Amino acid sequence: MTKNLKRNNNYKRFKVSVAPMMDWTDRHCRFFHRQLSHKTLLYTEMVVADAVIHGAREKLLGFDNTQHPVALQLGGSDPRKLAEAARIGSDFGYDEINLNVGCPSDRVQSGTFGACLMLTPELVADCVAAMKAAVDVPVTVKCRIGVDDQDPEIALDDLSDKVFDAGVDALWVHARKAWLKGLSPKENRDIPPLDYDRVYRLKESNPDRFVGINGGVQTLKEAEEHFRHMDGVMLGRAAYHTPGILTDVDPLLEGKPAESFDFTVLIETMADYATRHIAHGGRLGHVTRHMVGLFHGLPGARRWRQILSTEAPRPGAGAQVLRDAFAAVDVSAYEDA
């Protein structure tokens, strides 16, 4: 593993990130995304602190060294346990430890963490302080603008004031409320209206703090608009379903024109990675399921999806399936897509 970032070491260089998404941003997804962008900050799925402390750590936390910069998102509400889990994550080489204060799933609510922690900002601050005392890498929080009947004008300021006082290095805000009563986790991703202006106002009142925005960002053009107000932009489902947009992140952050991307090298890199994974008992589909949307909008994309969806999950499938699927795509049309 590479050397960890030091406390408060220029966190602002992480302008674009891919959101932590349960069942999606696993180690294979992150390896794939890293091939598309060297500068995007990648997040793990949420891992519960108890699982980190008592579970199979290598299985839960292990990752390929090429994934840096990569952040570990933790779930929990016990400051002592979160501090221990943060220390373990830091020892594994993660560049950041993030606390989940935004997930609205039933499983999260039953464990008294995730979005329901918006109701107890003092506890969140205690968790942040304990984690900060345990590690030298940045400690961050990802939250909502409020939950249920909370007034976002009050709830978001209350939480942000307390976690900033506790020393949090960055606050990533999903610009929607979470409705813990009456909406499913899926509905919570779409139905509550986005309120970007509320997050902009939070940044305006905290000019010297890192505040990033998340929620509904579909394109890098939209991200550029957010950059006028915010320190960072977090991409979610858009990065997962149409991962090709990540190929333009590095030129955007470097202020350079977009360059042609060598998809042939990408496919060979992923084929080699998949072969190694299969050799250790894995399946091709574990890797390729994250790649299905790569060529969205290009000639041959439908055939690419069909091959990966039907052939890759078959027992014994090897990396040649990936090459065969790629042969169906006309990547020369990429720049015009």
* SS element count, helices: 16
The fraction of residues assigned to DSSP E strands is 5-15%
Q: Please state the second-level CATH architecture of the largest domain.
A: Alpha-Beta Barrel
Helix-and-strand structural type: alpha/beta
How would you name the CATH homologous superfamily of the largest domain?
Aldolase class I
Largest sheet: 8 strands, parallel, barrel
- Overall shape: it is globular
Overall average pLDDT: 92
Provide a compact summary of the structure:
This protein is α/β, with parallel strands linked by helices and 337 residues long. Helices cover 42% and strands 12% of the residues. It contains 16 helices and eight strands.
